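Re-running the complex after MR caught last week's input typo. The corrected sequence lines follow. Everything else is unchanged.
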Amino acid sequence: MSLLKTIETGLRSLLGHRLRSVLTTLGILFGVAAVIATVGIGQASSDSVTARITSLGTNLLTISAGSSVSAGVFGGAGSANTLTMSDVQGLQDKQSAPDIQAVAPVSQGRESIVSAAANWSTTVSGSTDGWLVTNTRTMGSGIFFSANDVATRAQVIVLGSTTASNLGAGVGDIVMVKQIPYQVIGVLAPTGSQGFGTQDDLGVVPITTAQDELFGGGVQRILLSATSAGTIGSAYLEANQILLQTHHLSDPSQADFTITTQTQVLSTASAVTQTLTILLASVAAISLLVGGIGVMNIMLVSVTERTSEIGLRKALGATPVDLFRQFVIEAGMLTALGGLLGVATGLAVGYVVPRAANIAVTITPLPVLVAVGVAVVVGLVFGVYPALRAARLAPIEALRAQ
Amino acid sequence: MPASDELIHLESITKVYGTGDGTVAALQDFSLSVASGESLAVMGPSGSGKSTLMNILGCLDTPTSGRYWFAGQDVSRLNETELAHVRNRRIGFVFQQFQLLPKLSAWRNVELPLLYRNVRDRRSLALQALEQVGLTNRVDHRPSQLSGGQQQRVAIARALVTNPDLILADEPTGNLDTASSRDVLAVIRELNEQGRTIIIITHDPEVAPVAKRTVHVRDGRLVEQVAA
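Corrected-run output:
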């Protein structure tokens, strides 16, 4: 029998059992839709993490206190307070660190900022005038504090745009942190990033002022920016060399600090989101498999129900291959239909969820194609056994069944 | 070896069902030949082995031993696919239960055997076959919209449409009333008069006279041959 005629016969038989066909395709539908939606959500969150990290500037290096695992000894990153302002001065020396463009120490904590109008809790950082460059930020209004402000422990603060608007405070206003007044001298231009970890909700004060009045003497991290993306490697080596000197360490494996580049952070973050996406997609793939078993089940029912039809077709000259093809194609059509409906459902989820739940979904063609392809293959594979049963029926016995 | 005008030549056919101690011989040392253009009625009570004979004659089953030549070809050792081709090209079946597919119209049912040999113009061939059995005005009716006699005539059209060497009818009137039976038998007789070889399997003595020759099967053996 020609392929076209086989497909037509299959369609006829599926249409003859409309409700059953639709119910059978549901399993595949949900499987495909789930794969598309979960991969879409995973893709979107990975994109947004990447975008957020990239927006910090790819020239950025971060030095934190404590070592990572090195030579089998775990130093406990950030556990020891080993960074000091003299490290910062060493790194600012253009002679020994020509590839370091800007340096900014950071010590931060969560504080309540009180304005005339409101009370707002946010992250307050103590830093130096290098903060603006290392974080690749620009001012929206007013100015950032100067090296002189740091030296004189000025009582000044720069606010993020969200923080400023929540406090109802602008340039020139006075806000209180821990009952000490600070003058707002600038508001940062918004980055547009939203949700958890936004970079528009913060306050920055001179680190000297912060050490005196907020968090004490330490430096939690030092941010460095290399002169360009191409000099990150040499900036890394220079910073490492300087810190080993200022910490009086002769053996690099004993380093009590860790330098990370944005590229490292980026690859770690994308590895994490990728693992999550794979996990979610595997759960969805299992539902595809369950859908496939449903298809096999219904095809077995169909073979049993149509035993006498199979017998008749055999008597009229259908070969075992004809009948095998007939039933495999029917199963394939069931799952192809489920796959297409699943794509429609998946796309609908991708449209509705971002609007209803503020979760971003990025649908790319590849997972859609893979999901439909897998659905069709599942149908063909799970159709094989019922089709073999049909092909192997003895014509006389099949004819007798009625 | 069969003679040249023989369409069917059975030589010492034995068919045994079951294995080991529980074997039953449905046909024993059964020989028969049917000439081209002949009409034959095979009679016998139920359990006599006539259904087994019909399955072997129709290439639906293969004998345990013995040879079967059909139109000069030894078909007793063919595999399933080869047998399917012989059935499709050379044999037309008429069953007691009509065996029409309920969801297809009359002409779609008649078309079925042609689907398995990729013939063009299936519709016009099907309409010709329906005309031969006098159902020109019923081609788009479903089986449920037809009387029993009409359904059996659709089935005969389906058997005819491939222009087979043999039409094998298994109790063709078993489910029909007297008037419809007469109708269907008339169609079968006419086909034979046009030169087609006919074998009717029946237990009904009123059906047998439609054929020019009658043979009896009892306990798996050929017991008598009566020339009409």
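None of the earlier attempt is carried over here. The longest helix of chain A spans residues 262-305. Residues 70 and 253 of chain A are 6 Å apart (CA to CA).
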